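G., the chain you wanted modeled:
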Amino acid sequence: MLEFNLSQLNSSGDLVGALHRVRDVALQGGIPLVFWDEFDSPLRGERLGWLRYFLAPMQDGTFLQGEMVHRIGPSVFVFAGGTSSQYEEFGKQAKDASSDSKALDFISRIRGYIDVSGPDPEGPDDLHYMLRRALLLNSLLKKKKIGKDSEGNFRVDDEVIRAFLEVDVYHHGARSMRAIVETSRVGEGERFKRSSLPDLRQLNLHVNAARFLRITRTSPPDFGFLPFSSESQ
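Predicted structure as tokens:
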């Protein structure tokens, strides 16, 4: 797997260097899975300016370096946008973009898409947001290396789990959940307690801190919580 953030590249020449790295993997017999992050960022002020440089790689599996044509070989390109939360929204941007961007040609070469849902409810009928939060929290606790009990469950107070799952909105989506976990005062192998949470000002950057902390002080619902396992799916 290779990952490139296009917002950190400055020119089409930088992209050629990235495509050479992709080609090197293919020449060694592998099938590169290439993650192009922020692919919809501007290039030198041009909206969606990167897209025209992906037409040949996507259509023919080749790219130009000067007058030389290089073949990439079998590969999988994954494009993650930073300005549109859904494919439909990106499609509207593409229609409004200049013809020089070749945005519509780019869309015609896409073979599929996934709208990745964030940790907040996407409407009154969204019944799965709490599951999405639980899966994300599970992953974040693994990275934080929270302590585990003898059965392999994370040592996290129930009221802390409830706050992460039940708070109404995360101001910056998944980034806010990650920030709260990363800035909590809990060392590797320790128990994640209410007192481990960041202070009020820090929490307010990512959630309504008063509501978040209020959840940690209320009684749990009648159904309670199952152990938050480090192996749960």
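The beta strands are 2-5, 33-37, 62-65, 68-71, 76-80.

Shout if anything looks off.
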